[in-house]
Amino acid sequence: MVGLALWLVWSSALGQGPGRYSWKLEDNVAGCQLSTSQVAGKDYVAAKSTCLFPANIEVVGAVLRDIERYPEWMEDCTQTTLLKVVDRSHEVYVFWYRQHIPVFTDRDMVLRSELTVNEEAHRVVEADVTTEVASDSGKGFIRMPSFHAQWVLEKMDEGQTRVTYLIDPELGPGLPVDIANATIARIPFESLRHMMKMVRLQKYVDTAKALSAAGPPKRLAPANQEAKAVGSLPSNW
Questions:
Q1: Which pLDDT tens digit goes with each residue over 47-89?
Q2: Of 75, 119, 120, 118, which Cα lies nearest the Cα of 100?
């Protein structure tokens, strides 16, 4: 029974089991998979991409922690501001994020990101909109009503990491659905493509070496009142 339960968790986490999304493979570019899914009750699609990175899992994690440099590689992200470090041990951060929309008005949002799985070979980072820190850019952007993102990092052979990036956004009013969905569909792949350049930077390689020298990651205790299953990957993949 334990083996079956673990298989269900893993298959669901990787999009093979029941969940919120029904993924359709749209393309395979340079070894990366691009997929989209309809989302019940929404006009907008969710999208994800999976690529094999020529970098250790610690290096990829170091890039993800450097929030203020997201505009250098996250597709259509033009500005970020770190607003609050909630819990450094769980890597819980609140930050402001500006999303560029060509031709139409840019969007913005305040996100709370958290490392929810921290194992030697598997890491999961999740981000959702939050109101716990007020932030008004004052520049007339349209605030996105909802946004959910997940990063899954899987250690493969030495020096390689399989990275999956998923987004499930609600972009807000004033944007045709077909344009919105075309924008959403390309963001994960383009972000991963740019991120591959970031993992080669010496800054992140040195950060990863320092973390490796400190030993394997510690299992996470819940960061809030809601208990989290330590070692479990997200169940809605």
A1: 999 999 999 999 999 999 999 999 999 999 999 999 999 999 8
A2: 75
Query: Residue 122 in contact with residue 233, Cβ under 8 Å?
Result: yes
Q: What residues contact 33, with CB distance under 8 A and at least 6 apart?
A: 25, 27, 49, 50, 51
Exposure class string for 162-192: b at 16+ Cβ within 10 A, else e: bbbbbbbbbbbeebeeeebbebbbbbbbbbb
Which amino acid is located at 10 in the chain?
W
Tokens linked to 70:
């997201």
pTM of the full predicted structure?
A: 0.84
Confidence of residue 103 (pLDDT cuts 50, 70, 90): confident
The amino acid at residue 100 is H
Short-list 28, 29, 47, CA closest to 39:
47
Q: What distance in Å separates the CA atoms of residue 103 and residue 110, rounded to the nearest whole number?
A: 23
Give me the torsion for CA of 67, 72, 73, 75, rounded to 10°. 100
Phi, psi of 218 (to 5 degrees): -85, 145
CATH topology of domain 26-213: Alpha-D-Glucose-1,6-Bisphosphate; Chain A, domain 4 (3.30.530)
Strand partners, 150: 126, 166
Domain segments of the chain: what residues?
26-213
